[in-house]
Amino acid sequence: MRKIFLCSIICALINSTAFSQCDDCDYKSDEIWISIENDQNFQKMNGLITTNDLKLDSIFSKHGIQKLEQVFPYSKLERLKKLYKVKFTGKRDDFITELQKNKTVKRIIKRPVENDVAVYEPSDYMWYLPTQQDPNGWLWHLKRIQAAQAWDITKGNPNVIVASIDTWFDVNHPDLTNKISPKYDPYSNTAYSSDCHLVNHGTTVVSFIAAETDGGGQLASIGFRCMLICYQAWAGSYIERAHHAAMGMNADVITSSAGGWTCTSTIDEDEEIALQEILDNGTIVVMPAGNGPTGTHCNYGGRDHPWKPLSPDYDERVIIVSSTGIDNNHQYLVNGVDHTHSHYPEVDICAPGYNIMGATCTKVLDSINCVDNIWPYYGSCTGTSYATPIVAGVCALMKSINPCITPAQAQAFIKATADPIADASSYSGLIGTGRINAYQALISAGTRTYSNTTLSNTQNLTAGYGFNLINVTVGNNSNINLVARKEVNITGSFYVPVGSTFSISIDANAQTDCQ
Fold first, then answer.
1. pLDDT value, residue 513
2. Which one of 175, 265, 459, 495 has the largest count of C-beta atoms within 10 Å of its C-beta?
């Protein structure tokens, strides 16, 4: 009997009437950031931050201060350490006017309204999935990126952490209960449960990163043994949560497929610096391109763009992901209607993102937000929401074999080893270098081993981390150069004949352990 599944459904409802009645409504009315002269202006007592400036304290009291906290408490940069978030109940513009008169406050930054949207295509029809007898299988996306071959190199490391900033996470799902730790948002201490009152989306996204494989539920995912930390994008403080994940929780990879973004050409210098510190910390950032004009996307200036703040507009090391289908095409037609996902020059790579199987919540409270699938706890979904965590999972595997890999290197290895996309000529320069190949990316990122072999001719061999040479001979009249980031280990016999050359190049900037 053929089984048909439904994708989880989300509705992002915007009341345009309510928004049209405010002034300057692109910015929050109850929150600003301020930069102070020095840390001595504020003091911490019992975990709370208070001001010791009487004039500033008077202004705060007048405007109903609800919360005062450092924006980036884990930052090592003086500029970011002096930034404070102020939540208040009074009138924003009056509050700002009085703050501008206080010499303690050096800068005042209005905060843009964060868009709570999810990068996947909601659907009101059933998805057709191949049967288990089909050679492609229900998990065709893993076979397409050569996951099995990648797992022969590594099945991941539980010490490698991927942070997902998304909606809500079912911590009791059989494929996730042993993979999400802690079982709460570590930024706000909000505990997660199976209650699907904040939609399926986050549960589904993280299932593509590192659902439990070879155990637990019925799913497998590319990240295998890597672990997950989950943050609520829809609870606000988006860039702060990303910074917390990298600097406070030591996340190796950050990805977000829902919420907290802004769609603007404006550059926010503080967000730009915060993102750069995240990347300089060695944390890889992977973000969705969007779902094109028929889905969630960011468009201005006549074309689609990446969202901010985790954006290549701020730092080109951010990896942007779009989608391919089971036919290896980027274009996606539904009943003759073009539902192709976003494509533009900033896209780096594509991954399977049309009709792929992921986890859904185990407890259905709202039939609008969570669909009770015929096969409980799983469903087929479409969107760059789901292509993106696949790439994040590959990055986690790369970190597992090469903890020193930088965000720039991870991006370069993924792009250099991509497979061709069937209809790439129709999207020249808009869909990156191709579809991700996990196996080839790991070969480039990790340690390459040559055992009981002869290296011949003229070759420049490159490894992202290092080489293991075991009983290796250099051929006659051959020139071999090894380029490694970290180390070259030679064991057993090693022979270079007269007339041949053998050389080693090590990255001088990678001599110390990075973790």
1. 52
2. 175
| Beta carbons of 449 and 472 less than 8 angstroms apart | no
Q: Give residue-wise pLDDT tens across range 213-228.
A: 877 677 889 999 999 9
The confidence score (pLDDT) of residue 67 equals 86
- pLDDT value of position 13: 25
Sign of the alpha-carbon torsion through 261, 182, 377, 320: positive
Which of 267-281, 370-384, 406-420, 485-499 has the weakest average pLDDT? 370-384
Structure tokens at 310: 């985790």
Q: Are 197 and 369 in contact (CB under 8 A)?
A: yes
Q: What strands, in cross-sheet order, belong to the sheet with 466-474? A: 447-455, 466-474, 487-495
Kindly provide the residue ranges of all beta strands, DSSP E only, lying in 252-372, ordered along the sequence: 253-255, 284-288, 299-300, 303-304, 319-324, 333-334, 337-338, 349-352, 356-359
**SS3 label, residue 315:** coil
Report pLDDT for 158.
Answer: 95
Distance CA 152, CA 493 (A): 26
% of the chain residues with pLDDT over 90: 57
Q: Going by DSSP bridges, is the β-strand pair 284-288/190-191 parallel, antiparallel, or unpaired?
A: unpaired
CA distance 369 to 392: 25
DSSP, collapsed to helix, strand or coil, labels residue 139 as: coil
Q: Which helix (H) or strand (E) holds 188?
A: none
* Nearest residue to 229 (alpha-carbon basis) of 207, 245, 205, 215: 245
The CA radius of gyration of the chain, in Å to the nearest whole number, is 25
Residue 357's φ and ψ, nearest 5 degrees, are -85, 125
SS3 503: strand
Q: What is the pTM of this model?
A: 0.83
Q: At what angle do helices 407-416 and 438-445 cross, to 10 degrees?
A: 130
User: Can you say how many angstroms the Cα of residue 370 is from the centroid of all Cα atoms in its chain?
Assistant: 24
Give the model's confidence band at 370: pLDDT under 50 very low, under 70 low, under 90 confident, else very high: very low
pLDDT confidence tier of residue 448, bands split at 50, 70 and 90: confident
d(CA 8, CA 381): 7
What is the distance between the alpha carbons of residues 299 and 340, in angstroms, rounded to a whole number?
Answer: 15
* 494 Rama sector, left if φ>0, alpha if ψ -120 to 50, beta otherwise: beta
Q: Tell me, what DSSP letter sits at residue 342?
A: P
Environment class of 187 (CB within 10 Å of its CB; exposed 0-12, middle 13-18, buried 19+):
buried
Sign, CA dihedral 125-130-136-137, equals positive
Query: 58-86: buried (b, 16+ CB within 10 Å) or exposed (e) per residue?
Result: ebbeebebeebbbbbebbeeeebbbbbbb
| Domains detected in the chain | 25-112 (3.30.70.260), 140-443 (3.40.50.200), 446-510 (no CATH)
One-letter amino acid identity for 389?
Answer: P
Q: For helices 384-401 and 407-416, give the axis angle rounded to 10 degrees.
A: 110
